[in-house]
Amino acid sequence: MYGWVGDVLGARAGVFEDAALTAFELAFSEDGTRVRRSLGASWGTRFEAVAPVREFSWHKDGRGFAGWYYSATVRDHVGYESWLERDRLILLDRDPRVAAIGSQPFWLHWNDGTRKRRHAPDYFVRLSDGRARVVDVRAEDEVDEATGEAFAATHEACRAVGWEFEWVGRPEPVFMANVRWLSRYRRARCGRPTAVAERLLEVFREPMGLWDGAGLVGERLQVLPVLFHLLWSGALGTDLVGRLMETDSLVWTEGSGWAA
């Protein structure tokens, strides 16, 4: 957690305890109908598959920038309301532990002791082992007191039902720029033909420059999309943090016993 928000989460830990199951309510779409139930009565819902609770709209004078990202994991479009949320979607899409992603899955309702509050988390993520994770995306310098309190309440609700909660900010810029580039090759078709993919994995068992290795496999215009897909999927590795990818970037086959 970042800064004082982490302190808020720690200070409020356990305030609701088992009472959280009734203190919090979730409003969401069920078979096209909006319903509102206690946390205890609704936590088993597959929130990774429900419709968003609000529209993703873009306004000329607004601060956000809404859109739809095609997720290779979900094989469908997932909404976002800012470039920062779009970047997080890309990272979730690349994470092999992630099985499904739903955006704006529910309104979380609670009373803070003074007034009624509500908050719509950005993403509900289902992991491959069945665990659930709720993700809120906000840059640290854009988290005000009200937002911090909303994140703290969301964390308490998640803990009550065994969900993970994660607040994420801006990713490291060089790493994100590289992953954005690779995301262009996220679709399974970019990994074909299979024979080219297999040959790339063989060639890069001995680490070498990206451009040189691609040339050993065949015509680069045909080989490079497959190479980038393998880098996206993690079958091939390279340094995504130290610098932007170049033709001389060192590439290796993951699991071959070599890493930067």
UniProtKB/TrEMBL annotation:
The keyword Hydrolase applies. Keywords: Endonuclease, Hydrolase, Nuclease. Residues 95-168 form the TnsA endonuclease N-terminal domain. The keyword Oxidoreductase does not apply. One of its GO terms (molecular function) is endonuclease activity. Pfam families: Tn7_TnsA-like_N. This is TnsA-like heteromeric transposase endonuclease subunit. It comes from Streptomyces marianii.
